[in-house]
Amino acid sequence: MTLAEILAGLFPQGHDVVVTDGLVLGTGTRPGGGVVHVLGVVEGAPLGIDGALKLAGKVLAIARSGDGTPILMPIDSASQRMSRHDELLGLNEYLAHLAKALMLAEAEGHPTLGLLYGRSAAGAFIATALATGHLVALPGAHPEVMDLPSMARVTKLSLDVLTEKARATAVFAPGLDNLVQTGAIHEIWNPQASLAEQLETRLAAPAAPGDRRDRLGAERGGRPLAAAIAERVASRVAEHA
Amino acid sequence: MSTVFEPEALSWYEGSARQRIAALVDPGSFREAVGPEERETSPHLALFDLPEQFDDGMIVGRATLDGARILVAAQEGRFMGGAVGEVHGAKLVGLLRAAKALGLDVLILFDTGGVRLQEANAGETAIAEIMRALVEARCAGARVVGLVGGRSGCYGGGGLIAGCCSALVVTEQGRISVTGPEVIETNRGVEEFDARDRALVWRTMGGKHRYLIGGADRFVDDSPGAFRNAVCEVLKGPGRLDLETLDAEQARLEGRLARFRTAGDAVAIWSSLGIDDAPAVPGLSTRAFRALAVCRENADDAR
Amino acid sequence: MERLSYTLDAPIPAGGTKSQAIVGVVASGNLEVLLERVLAPDRCTVEIATAAHGFGEVWAAVVADFVTRRAAGGLRIAINDGGARPDTVALRLAQGARLIAGDVP
Amino acid sequence: MRDWATQKAARAARIAAGASFARGKVVQAADLVPFLGAVLRPGDRVCLEGDNQKQADLLADALAEVDPGVIHDLHMVQSGIVLPSHLDVFEKGIARRLDYSYSGPQAARIARMLYGGQIALGAVHTYLELFARYFIDLTPQVALIAAVSADRDGNLYTGPNTEDTPTVVEATSFKDGLVVAQVGEIVDRVPRVDIPGDRVHFVVEAGRPFHVEPLFTRDPGAITETQILTAMLAIKGLYAPYGIRRLNHGIGFNTAAIELLLPTYGEKLGLRGQICTHWALNPHPTLIPAIEAGWVEQIHCFGSEVGMDDYIAARPDVYFTGADGSLRSNRAFCQTAGLYACDLFIGSTLQMDLSGHSSTVTTNRIAGFGGAPNMGSDPRGRRHPSEPWLKAGAEAYPSTPAPLRRGRKLVVQIGETFGDGNVPLFVERLDALALAEKLDLPLAPVMVYGDDVTHIVTEEGIANLLLCRDADEREQAIRGVAGYTEIGRRRDAGLVARLRERGVIRRPEDLGIDPLDADRSLLAARSIKDLALASGGLYRPPSQFRNW
Q1: Is pLDDT at B7 greater than 90 in this prediction?
Q2: Inter-residue contact D287 to D266 (CB < 8 Å)
Q3: D22-212 belongs to which CATH class?
Q4: A51 close contact with B: CB closer than 8 A
């Protein structure tokens, strides 16, 4: 689906969303008349220091309003911008700042909903979609940490061998299903059904207490150990303390 | 007349994660949680016929520092380059969740190349969970201090986690970055980044540069004692994370971007900070460098 | 990975009272050695998981020398090996025996 | 009547041919390829200067571009096969025969080309041996050399990396050969005259310095505990008892560890002033802490080392320096010094057999020798006594009356029993023998012959071969320090125990060394940065060695 189709589906009442240099900003009107803030990275753009800062500034402005307006973050990005200049200026701080801003906005009562409909990768994925409180995806989305050819280079395994291994486990190969199985993506929306209804259902759902991605990963089999280990560490540390 | 160089007993850079913890916290105070004897190794490395490590390269537990209770996590940068896999990441998630519940400060001894490729999806998700748990712990009042001075630096997702910490202590060897030099070179060509030019790597991502642009809060010698002193100092400061903090960080990062948008190289940035002999910065001793670095961009506790 | 396992008579009981010790890291040419005091003081077992295949004879010789020369009685030893050379293996084993004896912090 | 000056006439013809591309002696870099085409003749013996350090790289690249239809069948007589272009000339048919010494970086490619018959090999020499042949039967007709700067008369400044240049020029120019120099820049007045201008016929300005490989920089960060143990054994078990003051070190990490242990471990043993005072050695950065601690009286160098120039210039009491203040190195003289004036050579190898023969050749890699066979041999022409030399002689020939007893130079092989990738150091049969068979060579490329080796140091201990009385003892002494290699595991335990009682084999514990003390904290510097700091900022390491 294109961004225009998605926005039209999400906001039949209309929206004022514009895309500039790969960043999407604006609001959409909800059926009941309220609005949803829309901000994200689209058109396969990489996320660099300026983009991250711009998005974070917007998120912080929303958070300061304290009106509880939800934030929807559509994502179809590349990875973080890979450049010497971005790193020179401290890209890690800019990306982390954006992620923190999203989490703070959520803590201030603005539900954050990631909507992955295209690609996303590595640090850009972490700083955007994975920093939202709830991440949904549309079929056709293609998240990846590293593509298989690059992985083949690093691991010195042939592409065939890697592809074969990818059949046995969800844990390393790119792709939507694999990240659903690890629990990174909470749910996949149905593009045939009304996106607006699915959005409203989601926004009406009570906020889940805490981060349950590791438990999802255990339930879905993509991350068999993470939840149990985290829990065990937390309880052992508490015992000692 | 120079004298013989006499190294301190333990170099942070050379030490193992366990040695670093032992030398950092109060002697004998560290209690590991889910230690190597529990053999919680990676369930995924066998698929690649790779050796496992009993602690999966992540050591977590509690300890005391100057008598105060703290939580500690340390990455072993030599095992899989300190990369974050499922178990490795989950241990830190659990520790940070405990920090929130217990209201205890946390030290993270970074040493990582980022996500572990052989379990990339698990590692990527774990980093997102770590960041969330870290932010929640900080919102609950815990300080989370990152220590960066290991062999593998603090790359990829590690750099993002570091960016969420309330304070960072770095050494000259410590590198903080998202994309590593080799990856930039592979993707963009050697003209963009010559990864073999190590001086370039360090002046772009190394501890001195990060300290000068306000990307780190303390710059210390490569020794546990130096880290300990700096950690004790920053633990006295505020670590609170709220909108005010992030507004201040927004202003700080906007200021940096405006000031150095056109700078092509670290040396140009250092010059514009007012350092007369900027090319000499990498060669300076810690003491000389800190004296010179009074003109640095301040981090203002805004992170 | 190749897995090897040895059970030996150990003439010298491990010193000290620590229940466990660990030395080394798993990296190319390096290894970790986990020692646990769980056996009778005249026995020693060594389990090895190694990335380097076909060195069984060498491991047997290194382990036998270690148990003869160092205080290894009572120890269950587990090794994860990243293809370390025998001299490194022998050194780590000796460091482990010293560590569990409490000679060094 | 016989013309007794044909060679002079030939050179005059070359100069005349080259002059059309030159203004005075100066040739433009852009004209280099046609210029070389004009001054060279098919079948010429050509010395293209290059050793394990400096390279006449501009000239090498140009030579590889000449038309093989015009210039072919050259006979290359040069120290180093190091740059890709050094082999390109063979691949293109410009050159055919080769006599050389060292080929480290091109070891794999030269092996393939030798097997493929693209190179007709004369011999692999040691440096001094090749230099000697320049004056007897391998005199170059054309020498293509490298210098830092030149004036318009052709006076050359070779700077700290003088290395082979004086020898090459001496042999070529005084036997009516043609000398062409590449220089970084042409100046009005050179800082010092290393080569007088009347020996140099053409000069080309490269506009950049010649390439130099930092071959002698060893990062202390990479030194292992086992290497430290071998270094402790060498210091306490060899340097101290023999009182080794005059010596040469190889370039491996074991010897770098020795250098870094002198101010710490050596100091603790009270050995300062007793050992390691006079050296034939390149300016190893790892020796800086020992120099600063007052261990070293003087050092003569084969070449320089990248980043060490300022440090050397600031320590003229230690190094040989010129009127301009910078290092004067000279490979031929330093090799001679290493051969005749040193009491010990210690270095590493890739393979050693049960007779003690060692080689760095494997079936896929032919690295050549460099200076090792010269350093690592007993000079039969030596006549001056010294304590270590006499003591070693007494151990080797106990029944010979002292006044007629030769001394022995200590030739020590040091290394871990297993190398990279768990490859054993000790083997039944050297790969060099297989290579000799495959290439039909009359002589296997053995780096150090077994009868020159006096001691072997591994982490298991020291074998003193001087004390072995027959081949069987010798074999068991070697097996006795061969660790867990197959050679080591197949030792005769009883005989090895007896050798140990006689002190032929000495274990760490026999020397009061606890292997668990072999810790990196013993190193006087644990990183390149430590070395730079120890030098007071005078040592400026090349970028690839930095982590700051």
Answers
A1: no
A2: no
A3: alpha beta
A4: no
Give the model's pLDDT for residue B3.
32
The pLDDT value recorded for residue B239 is: 81
Of C1, C25, C36, the CB nearest to B46: C1
Nearest Cα neighbor of B274 from B259, B286, B254 is: B259
| Chain A touching partners, 3 or more CB pairs below 8 A | B
Residue B301 falls inside a structural domain: no
Instruction: Tell me if D409 sits within 8 A of D378, measured CB to CB.
Output: yes
Strand partners, A73: A114
Nearest to B93 among A89, A101, A214 (CB): A214
Quick check: B59 pLDDT over 90?
A: yes
Q: How far apart are CA D450 and CA D447, in angstroms?
A: 10
Given an 8 Å threshold on Cβ–Cβ distance, is D484 in contact with C94? no
- Across the interface, whether the CB atoms of C105 and B79 are under 8 A apart is answered no
pLDDT (0 to 100) of residue C99: 93
Low-confidence ranges of chain D (pLDDT < 50): none
B144 occurs within a structural domain: yes
Overall domain count for chain B: 1
Establish if B4 belongs to a structural domain.
no
Calculate the CA B174 to chain-centre distance.
7
Residues of C in contact with B76 (CB under 8 A): 25
Residues of B in contact with D546 (CB under 8 A): 198-199, 202, 282
Contacts with C, D 210-229, CB within 8 Å: 224-226
Looking at the complex, does the CB of residue A98 fall below 8 Å from at least one CB of chain B? Answer: no
Amino acid letter for position B144: V
pTM of the model: 0.91
Domain count, chain A: 1
Q: What pLDDT, in 10s, does the model give residues D217-262? A: 999 999 999 999 999 999 999 999 999 999 999 999 999 999 999 9
Decide if pLDDT at B6 tops 70: no
Interchain contact, D292 vs B11, CB within 8 Å: no
| Residue D262: closest C-alpha in chain B | B4
Residue C80 has its nearest CB partner, among B17, B49, B52, at: B52
Q: State the Cα–Cα distance between residues D74 and D122, nearest whole angstrom.
A: 13
* pLDDT the model gives residue A232: 98
pLDDT average, residue stretch C26-44: 96
Residues from chain D that touch B3, judged by Cβ atoms under 8 A, are 292
Residue B118's closest CA among A64, D149, A152, D274?
A152
Residue A163 lies in a domain: no
* Residue C105 scores a pLDDT above 50: no
In chain B, whose CA is at the least distance from the CA of A178? B121
Say yes or no: domain D220-529 is CATH 3.40.1080.10: yes
Report the alpha-carbon distance of residue C100 to residue C94 in Å, rounded.
10
Give a yes or no: residue B300 inside a domain: no
- Going from N- to C-terminal start, the domains of chain D cover 22-212, 220-529
The 3-state DSSP class for residue A230 equals helix
A17: closest CA of chain B, how far (Å): 23
B178 neighbourhood in chain A, CB within 8 Å: 80, 86-87, 91-92, 95, 123
Grouping H, G, I as helix, E, B as strand and the rest as coil, residue D184 is strand
CB spacing of B253 vs A154 below 8 angstroms: no
B235: CATH: 3.90.226.10
Q: How crowded is residue D402: how many other Cβ atoms within 10 Å of its Cβ?
A: 9
Structure tokens at A213: 């991605």
Range of the domain at B46: 17-176+216-240
Number of cross-chain residue pairs from C and D with Cβ atoms under 8 Å apart? 40
Which letter, b or e, does each residue of A137-151 get, where b requires 16 or more Cβ atoms within 10 Å of its Cβ? bbeebbbbbbebeeb
CATH number, domain at A54?
Answer: 3.90.226.10
